Amino acid sequence: MHPEVEKFRERNVRTRDMGFGLAVIAVLLWVWCGVLLAMPYEVGPGFSGSTRKCEARLLTDEGTANVGRIQAPCADERDWPKVLAVLGLSVPVSVAACALITYGSLSFRMSKHAAALAGLRESDAREEKEKEEEKDGEKEKGRDGE
């Protein structure tokens, strides 16, 4: 195989692997968002000096820091905009991951397909050449027999 084809395929594999790396990052952002929403948490010591246990943001009926009560340390600690920012950050990362995976995989497959077609053309040309040589050999035998 030609060295340039090897380099092209290696670049495609690296591009695809970069896409998988970004996909892992996007999954980690989704997991982090899920943890922030679904796991109970504690708020550190405030004015009273004691910690306070808070229920998960997904399961609470209380408002957030933007519309919550005056003294709502749980809502202040984990506000919806912060959680949605993590989720929003995962969207462009996911899109970039999908694009890189698709581009790398498709380019690699197209390269293999082109190599297979070139091999088929080469074998067809070889077969035609062999048939022509057989015909030429038969013609020469026919001339020799005359």
From TrEMBL:
Origin, by domain of life? Bacteria
- Ranges of Basic and acidic residues compositional bias? 121-146
Which chain regions cross the lipid bilayer? Answer: 20-41, 83-103
Q: Keywords in UniProt for this one?
A: Membrane, Transmembrane, Transmembrane helix
* Region Disordered, annotated ranges: 118-146
- Write down what this protein is called: Transmembrane protein
